[in-house]
Specification:
This protein has 313 residues and is α+β, with helices and mostly antiparallel strands. The protein has eight helices and ten strands. It starts with 27 loop residues before the first helix and ends in an 8-residue tail after the last strand. The relative contact order is 0.15. It binds iron/sulfur cluster (SF4) (3 copies).
Length: 313
């Protein structure tokens, strides 16, 4: 056998002589798709950070970001004290009979878990009577210095779009405010003093819309005070015993009557006719019921400003 025909012994493969791995050939189409995926994930990341910052910035700057429950330890321009005192326990959420209080979600930055009220969806109508959220708050983040709804300062109502106001157009309202699917609740004393019902279950038939005035809890309280005053005067005239008089007087408390919050005022309409327009008064506590009940669907004619209160200094 010649040398050329001898089998050549194969060299063992070592690190040194191992052939270099060929890079898999990536098609142009695949590379473009990978680039698109990368850009998409980058944009998503930027979007998420921006969203967080959107919630975070007002907090960092100390500004109010949301309508807060009654008694929140804040001024109109600074919520830092409230954020520091609130332990996000949700006790206020539990006790509210109309489920007005929500805990803020992820996009609130460091405000996550802090209670707020979305007045258009469900305002605080004080149907709990005794400011239950304030009483339930274990830290005083909702200050215990409040005695009555009229003492609260959540914000201040404002006519946002007088041109769409039904009263200003001389129009009434008939039917279910905010439609049959609206989940908002209100206490209607004449129906059930103790249990709020769905607004959708209480249709109206009004010649002239005055819903923001007639459902304002402060205005309702003023009417109750007037009724109590009449009862008191009648009891006195009838010479009823001192005990009864004292009980009626006690019901008055020092908040009865509170200052007026809102009224309809005569104006000259665009058409030159005499019209009525809601006007916000000093007694407004910013509870948001007017914003919730306003039947103008696209955007309510009346809203609550969170950076203003009646006696802001
Ligand atoms: S005051 Fe009463 S109705 Fe209003 S948010 Fe607090 S618990 Fe709810
Ligand atoms: S509830 Fe709305 S539409 Fe009706 S009077 Fe008040 S602001 Fe105008
Ligand atoms: S006028 Fe003020 S107090 Fe009355 S419902 Fe509106 S926000 Fe509440």
């Amino acid at each position: 056998m010649s040398d050329s025909k001898k089998p050549v012994a194969e060299k063992p493969v070592t690190k040194k002589n191992r052939p270099a791995k060929k890079k898999p050939v990536v098609s142009l189409k695949k590379r473009q798709s990978q680039r698109r995926d990368f850009i998409r994930s980058s944009l998503l990341a930027v979007g998420f950070v921006s969203l967080s910052l959107a919630g975070l910035l007002p907090v960092v700057q100390g500004r109010s970001a949301r309508l807060r429950p009654p008694g929140a330890l804040k001024t109109t321009l600074d919520e830092q004290e409230f954020f520091a005192a609130c332990i996000k326990c949700g006790q206020c959420v539990q006790v509210c009979p109309v489920n007005a209080i929500k805990l803020a979600d992820l996009d609130e930055g460091v405000g996550i878990g802090v209670p707020y009220i979305d007045a258009r969806e469900q305002a605080c109508d004080f149907s709990c009577d005794g400011l239950q959220c304030v009483l339930a708050c274990p830290t005083g983040a909702l200050t215990h210095d409040l005695d009555y709804p009229a003492d609260t300062r959540m914000g201040f109502a404002r006519m946002d779009n007088p041109k769409t106001c039904l009263a200003a157009k001389g129009q009434g309202f008939k039917g279910q405010v905010r439609g049959p699917d609206f989940k908002g609740l209100l206490r209607y004393d004449e129906i059930d003093r103790w249990n709020p019902i769905a607004v959708a279950d209480h249709p109206y038939d009004l010649e002239l819309c005055d819903l923001c005035v007639r459902q304002c809890p402060i205005e309702i309280r003023i009417a109750q005070c007037a009724a109590q005053e009449e009862e008191r005067a009648a009891a006195k005239q009838a010479g009823k015993q001192a005990g009864k008089l004292a009980r009626v007087a006690e019901q008055h408390g020092n908040e009865c009557p509170p200052k007026h919050a809102i009224k309809l005022q005569a104006i000259k309409g665009d058409d030159g006719l005499n019209r009525m327009l809601p006007v916000i008064l000093d007694g407004c506590v910013g509870c948001g019921v007017c914003e919730m009940i306003c039947p103008v669907e696209e955007s309510p004619s009346i809203v609550v400003d969170i950076d203003k209160i009646t006696d802001w200094t």
